[in-house]
Amino acid sequence: MSAEQRARDLQISFPPQQPGYLNMCAKSGSLLITSGHVSDIKGKLGAGLDTKQGYEAARQCAVKILQSVHARYGGLDGLKVIKLLGCVNSAPDFIEQHLVINGASDLLHQIFGKDTDGYHARSALGFASLPTGAAVEVEAIFEVESGHEYA
Known about the structure:
CATH class: Alpha Beta
Radius of gyration: 15 Å
Largest sheet: 6 strands, mixed
Low-confidence stretches: none
Structural class: alpha/beta
Number of strands: 8
Number of domains: 1
Strand content: 25-35%
Shape: globular
Helix content: 25-40%
Order of helices and strands: HEEEEEHEHEE
Number of helices: 3
């Protein structure tokens, strides 16, 4: 089954996107580099939000990233996940940023394969605040595999 089909089976939709102030998915050579995508879930992990809620927030970010990549590239097939940067709006004593960002990593593993094209490098960092009060912000780098073309 293709990455595109797995995403659709997970009920991920790909609505048309209008250009905004920033490029949500830029291309450089064979790389697709996304801007940070913030969760709709607002708040601070460890001070109102728990790790499970943070995990869902990170998953939301990954869905938004996939939508931006799809809009730029025209699909998800032929892509390899290279790197994620996960930023977690954290209370000073919160230490489970890595478990929160698993929400994004796990979704990409489901779609691209944990041991194949979804196997990626990652950083998970805590921040005192994030734009709009978002609980999580995630950015990603994808590689377009040889033999695949941009839309």
